[in-house]
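name: query_chain
kind: protein
chains: 1
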Amino acid sequence: MRETINTRDVITGLRVARHQIEQWVARDYLRPRNEAKGRAGREWTYDDVFAIALLDRASDMGLSLQKIREVSHFGAPKFLYEETFLLIAYGEKVRLIPDSLGLTPEQIEEKQANAQIVSMPTHTARWDFIDGSDLYNRIGNDACKGAIIIPLNPIEELVQRLFEDEAEAGGRDA
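structure:
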């Protein structure tokens, strides 16, 4: 597997325009790990290309890129479940647990069981990479007011193909 790929491979593989990538860098939606090398262009890491693909997917969905800026700065998840999703949840319900410093595990458990449940303001969003099997627990049954869900496995597969060595790609197609 290659460590980096050039801009031409990114543009061709993801079908994203060069000016779009440059605009995302200029607007700080994308923070490349490597500096551009004059006319030779830039070498992009796996995390960079994953972020570009995620920004492109979100843009195609009509989402405000402001909402996923922090996610794109994070890079690719370091683990992927069988089905992994990016969940951006609004108005999640959370438990307000009073200070539990110095309490026994039983006392902490009791505080958690009796904690007040409140909804976070709908103008604030929390994001997380989640397992598909946990999706309902995170958004169903009135767990949040609204959510944006982006499947990440297709993005990961696309980016992995771009980073395969030519020998690996040839062996796979044969």
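note: The first helix runs from residue 7 to 14.
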